[in-house]
Design goal:
Helix content is 55%, strand content 11%. It is an alpha/beta fold and 376 residues long. The chain has two domains: 215 residues, no CATH class; 136 residues, 3-Layer(aba) Sandwich (Glutaredoxin). The strands form three sheets. It has a five-stranded mixed sheet, with helices on one face. It has a two-stranded antiparallel sheet with strand order 1-2. Strand 6, helix 12 and strand 7 form a beta-alpha-beta unit. It is globular.
Length: 376
């Protein structure tokens, strides 16, 4: 199945998202007037604090000024949490709690817990569900998503919360696909994505207030990935050309442990991984092992120069072009880079994740090579 998704930039600041939500707030309650005064006072205070940092004339003075700013931000965030606690039934408290997180992320869990307890039915939750699942991976975020899904009367809010829960569990799965609970996380993710497809296919993904496309598209793609591209599944064939135009097929490496690395020169984390990638190739060069890249980039010739400059010692399929996403990345439903797959000698996916090479993944490769040795 071909993916219909284009990658989101999930690195979008949570503060930016919260700013959009706060700006959408409405109301003229006494509590809101008090909050506006509190916000105005803080804006003035923050401006003075920032001025003190800018005017600091030494490294020590700047560090001291920044320390004061951090303390003041924390104090203000705590004051906002208390304000919301004092007005639990006022809709302005949604804006207050979101502002507290924008000011100081250390209060995030408390703010989300308060939103789950008192404001899960609020209309603004439709704009928050997607981002909670994609960027905030905490127990309070999960609790809020579940409360939105269960309580909010708006189908847009329900649909975005349902997808958020699917993404929440999918991320937990990707964090360690070899963990004891990895299978349960994958099942939870699949259940929420299936619910999305069955009940909310017509609901449009709410990207911080900007409507994107119906969930029928993303749910279908995620379900395919969970059913065909996770640990325990046979890796699909890859057939194409390497960077020099020579034929390259994944099945030609059956019998070896294979690390597949989706990468691009435009991807900072991908390029930061190159020394570790090269080191792994050298470490296992005399064993039944192959490290293969899938290069999703814009200009093949520039990539070839980068390969030489960086001393990249492994083959890659060329899978790029005008928008850097080719048919291999589409077929494997890649939406973020780098993305790593480890495949055993039987062609079975044993690991997939987005953290790159770590001691844990290197140990898995070593274990899989020992499995081969034990059969000989």
């Amino acid at each position: 199945m071909k993916s219909m998704l284009r990658p989101f930039t999930y690195g979008t600041s949570i503060a930016l998202v919260l700013a959009v939500l706060i700006a959408s707030g409405q109301g003229t309650s006494p509590a809101e007037q008090d909050y506006k005064r509190l916000l105005s006072d803080w804006d003035g205070r923050l401006s003075k604090l920032n001025d003190s940092v800018d005017k600091a004339d030494s490294k020590e003075a700047k560090e001291a000024a920044n320390k004061v700013v951090r303390a003041e931000r924390q104090n203000y965030a705590n004051a906002l949490i208390q304000f919301a606690h004092n007005h639990p039934n006022d809709t302005v408290s949604v804006d207050v709690l979101l502002q507290s997180v924008k000011v100081d992320r250390s209060v995030e869990d408390r703010a989300l817990a308060a939103l789950a307890k008192n404001h899960a039915k609020d209309p603004k939750m439709a704009k928050l569900g997607f981002y909670l699942g994609v960027t905030v991976h905490s127990a309070p975020a999960e609790k809020l998503l579940r409360e939105i899904l269960a309580q909010n009367p708006d189908r847009d809010a329900q649909g975005n919360a349902c997808y958020g829960l699917g993404r929440f569990y999918f991320k937990k799965y990707l964090d360690d696909t070899t963990a004891k609970d990895a299978g349960r996380y994958a099942q939870e993710a699949e259940a929420f994505f299936q619910r999305e497809a069955d009940k909310y296919a017509d609901v449009v993904l709410n990207h911080a207030g900007e409507k994107r496309f119906p969930f029928s598209v993303v749910a279908e793609s995620r379900l395919y990935e969970l059913r065909h591209l996770i640990a325990g599944k046979i890796a699909p064939e890859i057939a194409g050309e390497d960077l020099d135009g020579k034929a390259l097929k994944l099945s030609d490496y059956r019998g070896k442990v294979v690390v597949l690395n989706f990468w691009g020169t435009w991807c900072g984390p991908c390029m930061a991984m190159v020394p570790k990638d090269n080191e792994m190739v050298k470490r296992f060069q005399d064993r039944p092992f192959a490290f293969l890249g899938i290069c999703n980039d814009y200009d093949r010739e520039k990539v070839k120069k980068s390969v030489v400059a960086k001393g990249i010692n492994w083959l890659s399929w060329w899978d790029g072009g005008k928008d850097h996403i080719g048919p291999i990345a589409e077929a494997w439903h890649i939406a973020s880079w780098p993305r790593l797959f480890i495949i055993d000698h039987r062609g079975v996916i044993r690991y997939t994740g987005d953290e790159g090479l770590t001691d844990r993944t290197a140990a898995l490769v070593d274990d899989l090579l020992k499995e081969i040795a034990a059969t000989r």
